[in-house]
Q: What sequence folds into this?
């Protein structure tokens, strides 16, 4: 809930300069009333008609993305990103102008001359269009302007003492970022009615690029950091999305920030209908599109589908209901099904485009929906990692993130293999991807949250007590340890392995979990286990845990340091005349196989 601000007597008139800093005042939530419900329903019906507005070099073309029919075209040079209402498309054009075009017929409703170029952003809430403009020649180059959508007349203008961000409009107000504050301006007359400071912490010093209103909540931010504006002066809750793949991408649900190369790298988010936490993401990376499920913290959990374009690049993407509409650099329009990524349609293009505005939405809700994850998506991600194309690097990083967060250790092993790939003779993009994978393997894995990891560690610490009638079931906890994402489980599993009260069946499960985790930090406890019980015939007879432990040590025999220590333990055990015969057989065979292979020198040096 946004901090309350009531309409205040301190609001300035339309001619006053909008200050870069001002005291907090007013009630933003009160003045940002929703639109008339009946009119909003009529507008939603009109806005549901699909349309893609292609921005070419010196022309604007509106195309039906389903049937490929051209609705209209106009000879305009667009310099900023257009916006649209249910009936009109507003295009910022060269020469400090805005052209209002009828959405369906393509007729020009009006042309308005602005006091600067609308390079920053437009927002519309009929009957008012709000533009933040920039004129370097003016004494105060930044202004916010209110334009009537009825006749195109400028109703008010407010010069600003600092550059303004991209605004949003809701109900009766336009909200805009100015410096480290956000200000609410009444649409009717341009009077400032609310001001909120969102610089409560040192992490929020950067100026905000955009204000966004979603599902009754306000967000301000830029890049990958968006602040849910909550309490007076606090700056609300900050939501930083992602690891290293995200800084290049815009993270605003259903909106573009502009044309050019940056729009070829976009991260679209679906906000939850419950608490505005993103639940799904679709990443556009020039040639590749990856759809993924997100956890409650906004981190990628698992892939849903992958699409890689055979040739050419995408310059724009939008998600409308269950359709993902992509516009290629040659003007082609590709539509994918958001459920599983299969191609619904493809319309050929013939002219280069700089970007596009995709209009029209499904009548289905935009909130979280239940989907079955595509079991082939992980294989698609692995194939994506194998392609050598610098244009795919952001998508490949995202793919590596998703694979590393898999609960399946075999899938995570692909990232380990990528991190260990030989760097000699590889392309720069491949080296960058390898470095990213190497950084990932030093971080927590799997899909478990911090709370899940904490609960799991508590379960693993519930040791069986001698003489107690209470049975401690560790099966589920041991299974969960493999997907926990917490390195601390390695130490806890090792402690359980050495606990004399651990049941024989649990010993087998623990060794299996440590083998799946493939973490060299487990070798010390495994070596101690083998050394402690190698002559205990009862332990050998109860389970295969000792045999499995010896095989696990052999798997890491080629490690430069820990592997040598593990081999030394195995050699001591096999030379002990009291060693169980079956265990000795396993160790002798393992040593022979290693000595005949690449690790032969290591074994001989340890023996020597």
A:
């Amino acid at each position: 809930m946004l901090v309350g601000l009531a309409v205040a007597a301190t609001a300035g008139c339309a001619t006053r300069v909008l200050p870069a800093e001002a005291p907090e005042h007013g009630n933003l939530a009160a003045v940002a009333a929703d639109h008339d419900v009946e009119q909003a329903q009529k507008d939603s019906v009109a806005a549901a008609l699909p349309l893609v507005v292609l921005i070419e070099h010196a022309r604007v073309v509106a195309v039906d993305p389903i049937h490929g029919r051209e609705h209209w075209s106009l000879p305009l040079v667009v310099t900023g990103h257009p916006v649209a209402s249910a009936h009109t498309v507003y295009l910022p054009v060269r020469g400090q102008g805005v052209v209002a075009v009828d959405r369906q017929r393509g007729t020009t409703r009006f042309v308005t001359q602005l006091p600067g170029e609308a390079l920053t952003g437009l927002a519309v809430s009929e009957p008012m269009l709000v533009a933040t403009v920039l004129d370097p020649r003016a004494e105060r180059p930044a202004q916010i302007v209110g334009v009537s959508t009825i006749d195109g007349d400028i109703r008010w203008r407010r010069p600003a003492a600092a550059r303004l961000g991209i605004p949003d409009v809701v109900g009766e107000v336009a909200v805009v970022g100015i410096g480290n504050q956000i200000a609410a301006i009444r649409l009717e007359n341009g009077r400032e009615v609310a001001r909120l400071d969102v610089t409560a912490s040192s992490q929020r010093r950067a100026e905000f690029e955009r204000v966004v209103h979603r599902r009754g909540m306000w967000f301000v931010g830029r890049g990958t950091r968006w602040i849910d504006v909550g309490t007076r002066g606090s700056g609300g809750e900050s939501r930083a999305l992602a690891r290293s793949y995200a800084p290049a991408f815009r993270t605003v649900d259903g909106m573009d920030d502009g044309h050019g190369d940056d729009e070829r790298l976009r991260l679209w988010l679906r906000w939850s209908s419950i608490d505005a936490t993103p639940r799904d993401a679709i990443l556009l990376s020039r040639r590749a599109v990856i759809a993924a499920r997100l956890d409650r913290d906004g981190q990628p959990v698992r892939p849903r589908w992958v699409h890689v374009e055979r040739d050419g690049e995408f310059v724009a993407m939008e998600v409308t209901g269950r359709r993902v509409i992509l516009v290629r650099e040659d003007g082609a329009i590709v539509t994918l099904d958001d459920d599983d990524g299969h191609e619904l349609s493809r319309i050929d293009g013939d002219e280069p485009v700089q970007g596009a505005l995709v209009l029209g939405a499904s009548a289905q809700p935009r909130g979280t929906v239940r989907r079955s994850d595509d079991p082939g998506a992980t294989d698609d991600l692995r194939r994506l990692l194998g392609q050598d194309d610098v244009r795919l690097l952001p998508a490949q990083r995202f793919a590596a993130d998703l694979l590393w967060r898999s609960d399946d250790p075999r899938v995570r092993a692909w990232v380990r293999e990528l991190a260990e790939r030989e760097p000699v003779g590889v392309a720069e993009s491949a080296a960058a991807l390898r470095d990213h994978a190497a950084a990932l393997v030093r971080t927590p894995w799997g899909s478990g949250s911090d709370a899940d990891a904490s609960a799991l560690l508590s379960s693993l610490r519930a040791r069986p007590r001698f003489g107690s009638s209470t049975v401690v079931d560790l099966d589920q906890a041991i299974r969960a340890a493999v997907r926990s994402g917490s390195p601390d489980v390695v130490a806890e599993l090792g402690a359980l392995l050495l606990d004399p009260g651990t049941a024989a069946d649990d010993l087998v499960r623990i060794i299996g979990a440590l083998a799946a985790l493939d973490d060299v930090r487990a070798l010390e406890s495994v070596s101690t286990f083998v050394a402690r019980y190698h002559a205990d015939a009862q332990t050998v007879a109860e389970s295969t845990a000792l045999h499995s432990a010896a095989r696990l040590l052999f798997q890491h025999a080629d490690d430069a340091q820990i592997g040598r220590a593990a081999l030394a333990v195995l050699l001591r055990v096999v030379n002990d005349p009291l060693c169980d015969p079956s265990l000795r057989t396993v160790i002798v065979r393992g040593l022979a196989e290693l000595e005949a292979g690449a690790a032969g020198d290591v074994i001989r040096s340890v023996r020597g």
